[in-house]
Design brief:
- By secondary structure, this protein is mainly α.
- The chain is built from six helices and two strands; from the N terminus they run E-E-H-H-H-H-H-H.
- A two-stranded antiparallel ribbon has the order 1-2.
- A hairpin with a 2-residue loop joins strand 1 and strand 2.
- Helix 3 crosses helix 5.
- The chain is globular.
- The termini are far apart.
Length: 128
């Protein structure tokens, strides 16, 4: 299988979603893929951080222990060399809301678009 060539980094697939977040003077891009979640989870476990990133995608239960690992997973697709230490430095109380909103946008962008089949209602279900 051939890899898509992208100027600057041949590992980044230009067809993937790219949700921007500006933190300080730097702009970062978020994207959730299964590969990124698996790689982030492996990297975190290698340094002793236990987290289930698939479970962390339940954004209704977001807490401080899930935010940094999930943010890291969203960042590594477009910033493959970013470290967990760098991600931890990026998160502050002031930008917490912005980071949470951008994680939610990146997660939404990672989901497949609905098909016409998804829009069909079940005729046996009551109309609300």
């Amino acid at each position: 299988m051939s890899k898509v060539k992208v100027a600057g980094n041949p590992e980044i697939d230009p067809t993937l979603p790219k949700i921007a977040i500006k933190l300080g003077k730097e702009t970062f891009y978020l994207c959730f893929t299964f590969k990124a979640l698996a790689l982030a989870q492996k990297n975190l476990r290698d340094i002793g951080i236990e987290v289930n990133l698939l479970m962390a995608l339940d954004l209704s239960t977001m807490d401080a222990l899930k935010l940094v690992p999930l943010f890291y997973a969203a960042l590594i697709t477009h910033q493959p060399k970013i470290t967990i230490d760098k991600v931890t430095e990026l998160v502050t109380l002031k930008n917490l809301g912005t980071i949470f909103e951008t994680i939610a946008q990146a997660y939404g962008a990672s989901l497949a678009d609905p098909t016409p089949e998804d829009d069909k209602t079940d005729p046996d279900q009551p109309v609300v």
